[in-house]
Amino acid sequence: MRRRTIAGYGAAGAGAIALTLFVGWWRVDGPGAPEPIEQRPMALTEMDFRLTDHEGNEVGPETLIGRPTMAFFGFTYCPDVCPTTLSDISGWLDDLGDEAKQLNVVFITVDPERDTVEAMAEYVSYFHPAIRGWTGPEGQIARIADGFRAAYERVPTEGGDYTMNHTASVFLFGAAGRFVTMIDYHEPREFAVPKIRRALEEETEGAT
Amino acid sequence: MKKIIMTGTLAALLTFGGLSVPALAGPVDVVVESAWSRASIGMNRPGAAYMTIRNTGDEPVTLIGLSTPLAMMPEIHETKTNAEGVSSMSAAGEIAIAPGESVALEPGGLHAMLMRLQQPMTEGETFPLTLLFVDGGEVTVEVPILGIAARGPED
């Protein structure tokens, strides 16, 4: 009886390994492989998009130029990564204290169908007050994502719902709009805050 | 109703006190520690819950599913972030836990995805979540609901 159970586990394990390998191949080398994103994000000054912030104001790249910027992509129906990123950012901003006031902090939805201005307004209200929520027509979201070299994709789920795969990194730009660096998802806070300070220091370099 | 709330509060107190919620039902030797979840905005968005599941027995255990009155479709999901920094989420399938080992459900990795909420998840409340194992065993824990911006069980 016990041997059978173990054999069962073995078979299930082998099946799981085979499936994992297949899924890995499909995503990395196979037809499911994403387009390589090797290019650096463009400077904000080279981007062209029109979006709306969570207070209904029209915004574009020029909204960000003049102050250093921290920006990231997500969607409010995201149960795991997005609230975690927003909480992390809120924590970094708390650590920066008064310095955080010099920063633009922008959460850009990749799911404008569900993330209306009102949905973004409610969502960002639960996090650090510096965080702005941007949404807009699908075509404009595609343009800003392209400028950032960020990827996103709508994925159907059971029962007719859908979720979004998206770039989870946090992008940092200097005050002059030049891309500085990015903070990868799950990077420890002790690396994140110095990176933000680098973007803040770019301000003086950009101004001269 | 009052009784349910009191049980929830007790479970929440135990959890916050750093004690594990004991496995109350089933033959499974499993202890669930540090369970927590985030409050939801309404009922349209899926919720997520996190915890550490420890196999304290001598036999492997295999987690095959979840059930809760809070959500019609609770499932273990896994978030993965690829080399390009793109995050995606999919059902994790069965999760085997070897004797003495534990599995962490934590932000950015495995999580209990609570789809089709039947009521909003309100900060300060708790909800029962039952873990279903392959041998028919079940373990039910009361999961405290923290703020939307919570980062971990201590928030």
From TrEMBL, chain A:
This is Thioredoxin domain-containing protein. InterPro entries: SCO1/SenC, Thioredoxin-like_sf, Thioredoxin_domain. Belongs to the SCO1/2 family. It comes from the Bacteria. SUPFAM superfamilies: Thioredoxin-like (SSF52833). Residues 40-205 form the Thioredoxin domain. CDD domains: SCO. The keyword Transmembrane applies. Pfam families: SCO1-SenC. Keywords: Copper, Membrane, Plasmid, Transmembrane, Transmembrane helix. The chain crosses the membrane at residues 7-26. PANTHER family: ELECTRON TRANSPORT PROTIN SCO1/SENC FAMILY MEMBER (PTHR12151), LINALOOL DEHYDRATASE_ISOMERASE DOMAIN-CONTAINING PROTEIN (PTHR12151:SF25). PROSITE patterns: THIOREDOXIN_2. The lineage of its organism: Bacteria, Pseudomonadati, Pseudomonadota, Alphaproteobacteria, Rhodobacterales.
UniProtKB/TrEMBL annotation, chain B:
It comes from the Bacteria. Keywords: Plasmid, Signal. Residues 1-25 form the signal peptide. SUPFAM superfamilies: DR1885-like metal-binding protein (SSF110087). PANTHER family: BLR7088 PROTEIN (PTHR36302), COPPER CHAPERONE PCU(A)C (PTHR36302:SF1). This is Copper chaperone PCu(A)C. It comes from Phaeobacter inhibens.
